[in-house]
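Structure Section — protein described below
Tokens — whole-number codes for backbone shape
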Amino acid sequence: MDIKIRPANISDLDAINQLIESAIMIWNLPQRVKRLSLSSVTYSEHDFQHYQITVAEISNTLTGVLILDHDTYRKEKTCLIHGIYVDPEWQKKGIGTRLLKEAETLALAKKSMKILVKAQRDAQDFFIASGMNRIPVEKEQNDYAMRYVKKLN
């Protein structure tokens, strides 16, 4: 299976948002929470100015999407994975792993020291298996509970 990774373009936007919606709808969450989540993880043309968006394709079919935000986190240059989504029909076929590897490559190109993701509960095992480490939640901080980090060389 040949997975093609390429930068997304605005003409991909509808397919990207449809793929994200399909991926979210299989999460182990109440339907209401999934519906409410959609508005915070769908994208517009404007987002292409702020995020680095990459897609995975197999036989010209969009199968996955990676959204990166290059930022500084706790005084270290960090690449935040805003989202990795794989079409439910294509999950467990290596697409998420390829997109995560691409995230590492793109982060290193921007001189990031590490990659960080705020994972959805169902995705924790994927990030752990990919060599990421959970960041403990500090009691005095009101931070996202399932954060994972990987230092880059």
